[in-house]
Amino acid sequence: MRILFLGAPGAGKGTQCKRLAAKLNLPHLSSGDLLREAVKQGTPAGVAAKGFMDKGQLVTDAILIDMFRERLSGPSCANGFILDGFPRNIAQAKALDSLLEELNAQLNCVINLEVDDSLLSDRITGRRTCGNKACAQVFHIKFAPPKKEGICDDCGAELTQRSDDKEDLVAARLKTYREQTQPLIEYYGGKGSLQTVSGEGEPDQIFEAIMTTLNTNCLIKK
Ligand code: AP5
Ligand code: MG
């Protein structure tokens, strides 16, 4: 099963993809997580990416395309994958099309998580993430608070705020999304693989709606 998630910053892509990856036993490939790890490690891709991420802009296509070519061609993705955050513009979508053609594979489903703009800013600025890389559990100060403030329920490590989750960057990230990523809804709509699922409400309900969509419209096999 090869699934792609679209959705604005804060729509809940990471939250739902994590659950789905566990349920379907598929790798969850989050472009943002991969880039943040590259920045942390100080790799050439990370060094090049940081300036763009700090401004809420898209990182150069070539960096993302190389990153995903390497992963999607590898053995861990042989039985499928869940893409979160890549592709993010038309050029990346076309590069993914070519790559899938080379691999003789196709996307089974593109899920667009739809959330009203008015909810996104709160979701983004309230997000806190466990600093322990092996855990990386995501919380929210209002909507999914940890039992003890600032501490991960699962492993006890300190929670951190993503550097791009500050109020002053939210507008820039949403603008980038509108201008460059939203056109992908039409792109995949035209291919007939797009399913829209509401990303509003309780995460459990949203997950159920995603599973129903996959089972009903995407002929999920496992
Ligand atoms: P990335 O990390 O992909 O960020 P994003 O797309 O802005 O999306 P987010 O991770 O902010 O939101 P999400 O939808 O995953 O929401 P989450 O589930 O965490 O990208 C970061 C940067 O990297 C980009 O700005 C760009 O610079 C670069 N980049 C990445 N990919 C790129 C690419 N392909 N090309 C070029 N550059 C690229 O949820 C958010 C919060 O809400 C959490 O706290 C969660 O607990 C809470 N929440 C989730 N669901 C609900 C719910 N139903 N109700 C209430 N709260 C909820
Ligand atoms: Mg995310």
Key terms:
222 residues; alpha/beta; Rossmann fold; 48% helix; 14% strand; globular; binds BIS(adenosine)-5'-pentaphosphate; binds magnesium ion
Annotated CATH topology of the domain at 2-115 and 196-217: Rossmann fold
* CATH architect. name of the domain at 2-115 and 196-217: 3-Layer(aba) Sandwich
Major sheet strand order: 2-3-1-4-8
- Count of helical regions: 9
Q: Runs with pLDDT <50, length 5+?
A: none
- The structure class reads alpha/beta
Helix-strand topology string: EHEHHHEHEHEEEHHEH
- Strand portion: 5-15%
Helix content range of the residues, please? 40-55%
Name the CATH superfamily classification of the domain at 2-115 and 196-217. P-loop containing nucleotide triphosphate hydrolases
Give the distinct bound molecules. BIS(adenosine)-5'-pentaphosphate, magnesium ion
Summarize model confidence as the mean pLDDT. Answer: 95
General form: globular
- Can you summarize the main beta sheet? 5 strands, parallel
Give Rg in angstroms: 17 Å
Number of strands: 8
Class of the domain at 2-115 and 196-217 in CATH? Alpha Beta
CA(first)-CA(last) distance: 8 Å
